[in-house]
Amino acid sequence: MTIEPSQLAIGRARRRSSLTLPTGEAPTFTTAQGVLYRTDCMNVLRALDDDVIDCIFADPPFNLGKIYGEGEVRDDLAAHEYLKWCYGWLRESVRVLKPGGSIFVYNIPKWSFRLASFLEDEGMLFRHWIALTMKGTFPRGRKLYPAHYSLLYFTKGDPSTFNKVRMPIPTCRHCGGDIKDYGGHKKFLNPAGLNLTDFWEDTSPARHSKVKARWHVNELKPMIAARCFQIASNPHDIVMDPFGGGGSSYEAASDLHRYWIGSELTDCTHIAQRLTERFPKDAGKLPPKEVFALFR
Q: Could you give the CA distance from residue 284 to residue 157 in angstroms, rounded to a whole number?
């Protein structure tokens, strides 16, 4: 099903001045759970009040020279320019987070250690460097085989929310039996499953066109953002993803009953279509007034 912009029921949103950013952009898409702007993420971040967002999940471009949209995004900056850009949106993200709020930043280790240092300098509390397995790559020159992406987890002071996420006990795909015997102590394991660790083995990018909203981008699985939101927020909290991409984080937030604010610099039609198909009863509606009360 193809959704045209005229079918997205955004007319009501355009008539609400509280939804329009100071830079003039009205939402490009709304649902009962969230609002999406097609604009630079800095325009949305700067429009928000201080200390209003419960959790931020950010998956920015990695500066690897990839093509995004029709040339709207430069992904081949000099290192100092890329880091300066990252520091800008990170500084604004810290400002809009509530005390005790959390930020998760997905990137490659080359940049993550610098971003982690910056977040510490901004007064954020380091919680975890989560390693997400990266399969299907290849060795590059005189380096070790790259096998993980990094997911930084910082909080604005002590976390106000920390929920334990549990995983099913791994089983063999052939025989169905448990992969580990847990030293003979399986009976003492929590029946809800194993505690989530800081190494995630089931998060390879969605590369097949049948399961991607944008075929030319290594889109994240919704489970990645979902776990972050599960860890650091509760139903009806307000979360944010400044880099909409394929919309997987907005799908995850909606599925978990979190309200969300999003932005994407390139075409948003694929995100609107994804959310309309996934949550048809919510498409075109407006989230509660509490979401728009966060804007200056």
A: 36
